[in-house]
Design brief:
By secondary structure, this protein is of the alpha/beta class. The protein has a single domain (2-156, 202-230), classed as Rossmann fold (3-Layer(aba) Sandwich), CATH 3.40.50. It has 8 helices and 7 strands. Helix 1 crosses helix 6 and helix 6 (158-180) runs antiparallel to helix 7 (183-199). The relative contact order is 0.15. The model has no long low-confidence stretch (mean pLDDT 89).
């Protein structure tokens, strides 16, 4: 298991280092711009405000953090495993009060009980040990703090499920591969979503890490889920 975790860690880092500079464009293109709505909706559901201290995990180029800033959050920190992603985050968000650091979610060098909110968009399935990542979330969050997870899932409706799989497996890898120059990276995405949906129960894992109150919301025909877990 340890070797599998190390292999996954290296694979994920290499993928995101490679596609970082086309990441934003492809996110917006391949989701038809809906990813912007998903982040905004997730932040509204969790209730961030001017008093929030936010840690954006697997922050990528910072779109979740930037959306939070627009909603009044001023204290924002970003954490990601990819150096190239963090470089782009810094360029895009130099007006945010906070700092970014390179780390894995499972071993974040952040003080206990130090933030009110943790967000992670489309990153949990890339953790090499999800349970350990959630343990880290619980340690870092203050009492009554919230972890907000935005993640893909397979729709329960059979029609949308077939349509979703066709798009993810046949169309997305071709477009993503041509534009990013790394077709394998965009083959990894549908594989990771399907495997994640079949094997991982996020609410149960969050409960096992100590979180008590857990909400689950489905967006856009059930292709995306927002899970909010309170400490």
């Amino acid at each position: 298991m340890k070797n599998e975790n190390l292999d996954k860690k290296s694979q994920v880092r290499n993928i995101f280092e490679t596609i970082a500079f086309r990441y934003d464009f492809l996110n917006h293109l391949l989701s038809f711009g809906t990813d912007i709505y998903w982040r905004k909706k997730a932040l509204k559901l969790t209730g961030v405000n001017k008093d929030s201290v936010l840690l954006d995990v697997a922050c990528g180029t910072g779109d979740f953090a930037i959306a939070a800033k627009k909603m009044g959050v001023s204290k924002i920190f970003g954490a990601d495993f990819s150096f190239n992603m963090l470089k782009l985050f810094k360029v895009k968000s130099n007006w945010i009060t906070g700092f970014n650091f390179q780390t894995v979610a499972e071993k974040m060098p952040v003080k206990k009980n130090s933030v009110t909110n943790i967000t992670v968009a489309f990153g949990v399935r890339n953790f090499y040990d999800i349970k350990e990542g959630f343990n880290s979330f619980y340690r870092i969050l203050s009492d009554n703090g919230k972890a907000t997870i935005l993640e893909f899932r397979l729709p329960s409706n059979p029609f949308f499920k077939r349509l979703y799989k066709f798009y993810f497996k046949k169309i997305l890898p071709v477009i993503g591969g041509i534009i990013s120059g790394d077709k394998e990276a965009y083959k990894y995405l549908p594989r990771s979503v399907e495997e994640f949906d079949e094997k991982i129960n996020l609410p149960e894992l969050l409960k096992s890490s100590g979180f008590k109150k857990i909400e689950q919301h489905n967006l856009t025909f059930g292709i995306v889920q927002v899970i909010i877990a309170a400490k």
